[in-house]
Amino acid sequence: MSIKIENRRPPKRTKIVATLGPASANEEALRQMILAGLDVVRINFSHSQPETLGPLVELVRRLSDELNVPIAILGDLRGPRIRVGEMENGSIELVAGQKIVLTPQPVIGTPQQISVSFSQLAGDARVGSLLLLDDGNLELQVEEIKGNGDVICRVRQGGRLSSHRGINLPGLRVNLPSITKKDYADVDFAIAHQFDFLALSFVQSANDVRQLNAYLASEGVKIPVIAKIEKKGALDDIEAIVREAYGVMVARGDLALEMSIQDVPIAQKRIISACRRAAIPVITATQMLESMLESHKPTRAEATDVANAILDGTDALMLSGETAIGKYPAETIATMAAIALRTEQACLSGELPCWPEVDSPRGIDANVAYASQVVAQAIDAKAIVIHTTTGATARRVSCHRPLIPVLALTSHPVSRRRLALTWGVESDLVESIRNTHHMVTLAFDHVLHRGIAASGETIVITAGTPYGTAGRTNMLKVEQIITPTSDPEVHDD
Length: 493
Prior knowledge:
By secondary structure, this protein is an alpha/beta fold. The chain folds into three domains: 15-79 and 178-347, Phosphoenolpyruvate-binding domains (TIM Barrel), CATH 3.20.20.60; 82-168, Beta Barrel (M1 Pyruvate Kinase, Domain 3); 364-480, Pyruvate Kinase, Chain: A, domain 1, CATH 3.40.1380.20. Helices cover 34% and strands 22% of the residues. The protein is built from 16 helices and 22 strands. Strands 1-2-3-13-14-15-16-17 form an eight-stranded parallel beta barrel, surrounded by seven helices. Strands 4-12-8-9-10-6-7 form a seven-stranded mixed β-sheet, with helices on one face. Helix 1 (27-36) runs parallel beside helix 12, helix 7 (238-244) crosses helix 9 (264-278) and helix 10 (300-312) crosses helix 12 (329-348). The two termini are 36 Å apart. The model has no long low-confidence stretch (mean pLDDT 93).
């Protein structure tokens, strides 16, 4: 049974990231995707040139304003991808058992010899190590490394190899710069167009994240960095990475080439758990609803995969080809939203045991965030309202998975958009707080306007003093709602 798209967004708490492409980079498709439950637009710089993206960014911002939905834009950097060169007649056939030479020289590929884009392959490869070509469809094993930079391999898994396909070196640390010349050009475009997030590909350690953060700081901006975990080294360094990154993406496609396929679900759970402990958003990605590239409904296994990622504690789910080139981009988002909503209902109602509590927080702001959901549950409050400058307190509250609605109020449009990646947090744009009475009145106005609490019911409010100062959450108030005399002014981005 296909999912019908309504004219109001589904009230799910898990956020949805969707990649734009030929199937979705137009006004009508994007409008339908937003109405179906889209929260974050992903622009894949691997398949895009900055000079073509300006109108698309403007379209996203315009529809976000028109529909009053804070849609964030995530730019996904291509990273240091190793590729084979040009093949004779476009592709060649490799046969299991044959020998083949990988060379840094720019030769036309034949079944006997192919070129690679990485000149230091001989320095990083090891005799006996595996090389995976074309997303793991072909396997080579290194037998000999020559002093001239050639690597002699034997084909373990044959097949047809086309020009410019990728090469993975599972388990090996590759001495490539984490940010390429193209990446820097794409980062500059993202800065100029005020992207909300940048995803850093092929992270090998926390130092890679620090390098991008340092470049952004040198340009005078603070675009949050999402570290893509798709290398074994990054998984090993996950605790350091979550301290440096704003968020993390579980990039299961390339991660599955770095380890045994049976280890990927365990890695997913480890990464999500680390992010929840650090109170940073985490995206689960790759082949979530792959069959909907062609089909109007997913497989049962895909529906279960989506639900299990939510049960693991992911903040967001990502769609790639399904919305970039698939036949049913909006329907795919609606389907994902429906699965998310049903899974959340099972958790929030106690039908399923979900989301084990994270470690006790440290620091005043973290403890105020923790206390807000404890107090709310104890007194049967109907909502938690968070006055926030950067969104940090809302993220800390979210990691504890409160059972009631969480509404963030901010005077900063950028902070509002960035909360589009945080589980369970809705947001409104408001004027700056003038005093405590104004703070409480704004909270009353907006929960009533949204219909998440009624007059006479109780809400929990957090804020920081001095008002408008980032990182100073130090106040928690319990208030019984008093009906205002007028409707609130709801600001668009």
